[in-house]
What we know:
Layout: E1 6-11, H1 17-29, E2 33-38, H2 40-43, H3 48-55, H4 73-80, E3 83-89, H5 91-98, H6 105-112, E4 117-121, H7 125-129, H8 131-142, E5 145-147, E6 151-154, E7 160-164, H9 168-179, E8 189-194, E9 199-200, E10 206-207, H10 214-225, E11 229-234, E12 246-249, H11 253-264, E13 269-272, E14 288-290, E15 297-299, H12 306-312, E16 319-326, H13 330-340, E17 345-350, E18 362-363, E19 366-368, E20 373-375, E21 379-380, H14 381-396
Parallel strand pairs: 1-2, 1-3, 3-4, 4-5, 8-11, 8-13, 11-12, 13-16, 16-17
Antiparallel strand pairs: 6-7, 9-10, 14-15, 17-19, 18-21, 19-20
Helix pairs in contact: 1-3, 1-9, 4-6, 5-8, 9-10, 10-14
Amino acid sequence: MLKGKTVILGITGGIACYKAAELTSLLVKQHCDVHVIMTKGALEFMTPLTFEALTGNKVHYDIFDKDSGTEIPHISLSGKADALIIAPATANVMAKLAHGIADDMLTSTALACNCPKLIAPAMNTRMFTNPVTQDNIKTLEKYSWNIITPDEGRLACGDTGKGKLPSPETLLECVLNTIAKEKDMKGLRVLVTAGATKESIDPVRYITNHSTGKMGYALAKNAAMRGADVTLITGSDNLPDPTEINTVHIESAADMFAAVKEYSENSDIIVKAAAVADYRPKTVAENKIKKSDNDAVIELNRTDDILKYLGEHKKEGQLLCGFSMETENLIENSRKKLQKKNLDMICANNLKVEGAGFGTSTNVLTMITENDEIALPLMSKEEAADRIFTKLIENRTK
């Protein structure tokens, strides 16, 4: 996703330096050109050779580097950067940046950067919560720095509290959200549902399905990368919450329906990718299930049709996209659902096709609108999410 992008990674002198190596690797795997700048403190924890081996680029740490020739490194680097991220960032370097102090390679480069700037504080809890540090954070925000909130937990010093550097995966997401995509959805409010719901039978058992939520999460992340204000309603409990996304966790179909009603009214685009554990019997007799090995049974209530509700209450200008999982008559059945549920688009996939459906990292979709049928080849769910929103935006601007 970062092919053709240049990122400057600033590393300061904290014990969390070791996470910067993994972040560097993740950025490179996204085909990003990574240039590392280390402070003197960072050199006490890690060697430049580690990052040079990962990036293929020289690590900068001396603003008066005599091997730079006629180039002024902090000016040339800052001029070609698409983003600057400092991770970990000590209280000391944040204080310098907040007040325009440029006394080393990193702070001088940061002062010269006009690109988006991200900073991930990592320090002892008492240092982080100190009013001076909090004032510096507010000052950095005023100067358009994107502050990545530290995690809570046990710190290297043995204390417990806020101050941990987030995982490299979270830091990567922050970079992706900043520069991976053009912000063609900026100003739009997007609602995505994902994962399976659970319908309790008794205190031990429940009915669910095989949905992992991967497709819905890919959609939510793609919309966020494109600048949208995203709310993700999810029944998944095996995927980490995406960064910079309002994530609402639910259990049952009734929970999801309530959350959808709450958030749908103010949404510009709604994509229902969740697989509701819906039990819709043909007869009253079938609306029963054994509670145990004896003859006792309980009745399962019919769940609300969320997509039908959304279609019946669709506002003018609002786009509604659903998913259809079929084992036969894919296009015919999906078109019927498109019309019956008042959808703008439906993404259909055949569960019998290899690489499609639940539990995979790929999908094989056919995007169906009133006038179009676009069959997509096997691709990652991230790529499929991008194609879905591109089509929705295209339809929205017509």
